[in-house]
Design a protein that fits this description.
By secondary structure, this protein is an alpha+beta fold. It has one domain. It has 1 helix and 5 strands; from the N terminus they run βββββα. The protein has a 5-stranded antiparallel beta sheet with strand order 1-2-3-4-5, with helices on one face. Strand 3 and strand 4 form a beta hairpin. The radius of gyration is 12 Å and the shape is elongated. It starts with a strand and ends with a helix. The mean pLDDT is about 90.
């Protein structure tokens, strides 16, 4: 699966799956990074959330492989 990095911390693969990187503040005002996943064609805004890009890619690739 090939991932293309687009501007503004956004990745997309050849199937249209997307990953968006967000920096948020936790309860103690520390910056945390989250990666929100979205399967192509899904109506929900996000399919899942991880704390690393690698894990986000693995989750989307795994779910894509289990669909075939």
């Amino acid at each position: 699966m090939n991932w293309t990095k687009l501007p503004d911390n956004w990745w997309c693969n050849e199937f249209g799956d997307q990953i968006h990187r967000y920096e948020i503040l936790d309860d103690e005002d520390r910056c945390q990074t989250e990666y929100h996943l979205r399967h192509a064609g899904e109506r929900l805004p996000w399919s899942g959330k991880t704390h690393t890009l690698a894990e986000a890619q693995r989750q989307l690739e795994h779910s894509r492989m289990s669909m075939t």
